[in-house]
Amino acid sequence: MRRVAVSLAALATVAVAVAGLAPGPSAATPSADNPKPSYYSLKLPAGLTVADLIRDGYDISHGHGSRPTVVATPAEVDRLRDRGVVVGKTGNVYQPVLHSASDAAGTTYYGGYHTTAAHEQHNAAVTAAHPDLVKLYDIGDSWKKTKGQGGHDIQALCITKRTSGDCALDSTGKKPKFVLLTQIHAREIATGEIAYQWIDLLVTSYGTDPEITSLLETRELWVIPIANPDGVDVVAANPTEPVMQRKNVNNSTGGCPAGDAGVDLNRNSNFQWDVQQGGPCDETYPGTKAVSEPETIAVQGLLEKIFPDTKGEVGEPAAADTTGVFLTLHSFGNDILAPYSYTNTPAPDRAALVALGKKMGALNGFPVTTGDAGVGYFAPGATDDWLYGTRGVPSYTFEIGPDSGSCAGFFPSYTCFTNTLWPAQKPALLYAARAAATPYGKLP
Fold it and tell me: 139-143, 252-256, 297-301, 350-354: which range is least confident on average?
């Protein structure tokens, strides 16, 4: 069954977006044959699980608690009801958009969210304006760029009050490192925007805000704002009703409609990679092998360079003096997920990981879970499990945004972002950066 990954004449929209062209007018026009998807809560009958629905091709965006959420069209809702599932609509995928001048100029979309090109311009601008604070790296290429089809560099910024040895691509630096990774799933647009605002907060507050000044003098704050730039291009190709592209745009496996091709970059690491996560047309397709995608190679390559390996075998704890914290932001559900996400077997450092998670959760209001307790399904091959499992660095997923309401889902209005989503995360990010010095010791 075709996944609900795209909407609003989606096949045409994604086909032209992946080709690097602007979508035609018909891309934004709903029709009786191609209605808009909505969010629905599900009450599953005995014998049917969230994992079953994912394997059957349903787009389960959040499985927290007894009422998982699915993104579905009316036809798919009918099929779910035929299987005995109790379905209730919880909200619309798209919110009313207040257009801005930057939307018209093509640097933002959906009322204020920044395009990949705008992120790149921003990264270059803050680096040029603050050379004493920012170092910009090209850490690898997107899938399209590796194929000579345009595409992008994967960019990372190191932000610190730079002294000799800072921001080196090795693990010898003296300053503990905090890393923020966002928009690895392209449609989770609030996450990349948090990275954009986080960068601005850091560079504009140095010398005026005592806490942030101290952080920049004692930490390296790394940011990978757009981990899936080709996918974000697809999302932003329809600026009023963004395309629901989750994966990268690798269409080499063949056999999938344009909107369903690609690899889930958060299932593609070489830690507990699982071929059974889905087929090539599924949203959780892990790729032909672990680390098959250039975007994964870029991210893992950076993290391998800057973090020393303080962990032995999978079942062994990290060294007590391990430094660093890693956060990857996703949408949605208002959760903090601590390792492991591939199993319910406790991680060897579970108590310490949960303790740090609860400190951050006290600031953004999110509960902390492990295993499949947070989102209702396992995520083998995830970035955070890989970094903790191979390097011992405390690593977390934040699921940004509520389950229902006008600020819920993949595409919250930009006013929700500025008024609610970003302010809620700012103190948690600052705390994570402080905790990077002693994440397994006495917490700040």
Answer: 252-256
Six-digit token string for 197: 């605002």
The structure tokens listed for 194 are 């948090």
- The structure's pTM equals 0.90
Cα 77 versus chain centre, distance: 27
Identity (one letter) of the amino acid at 396?
Y
Report the 10 Å Cβ neighbour count for 122. 19
The DSSP output letter for 297 is: H
**294 three-state secondary structure:** helix
Predicted local distance difference test score (pLDDT) of residue 376: 76
How far is Cα 107 from Cα 154, in angstroms, rounded to an integer?
Answer: 18
Give the residue among 173, 184, 376, 388 at the shortest CA–CA distance from 272: 388
Structure tokens at 252: 């080499």
- pLDDT tens readout for residues 82-92: 999 999 998 89
19 pLDDT exceeds 80?
A: no
* Rounded Cα gap, residues 403 and 356, in angstroms: 24
22-26 long-range Cβ contacts below 8 angstroms, 24+ apart: 22/237, 23/237, 23/238
Return the sign of the alpha-carbon dihedral for residues 407, 335, 341, 196: positive
18-37 CB burial, b ≥16 within 10 A, e <16: beeeebeeebeeeeeebeeb
User: What Cα–Cα distance (Å) separates residue 413 from each residue in 85, 92, 225, 240, 322?
Assistant: 30, 11, 20, 11, 39
Q: What does the DSSP 8-state code read for residue 180? A: E
Band (pLDDT 50/70/90 cuts) for residue 27 is: very low
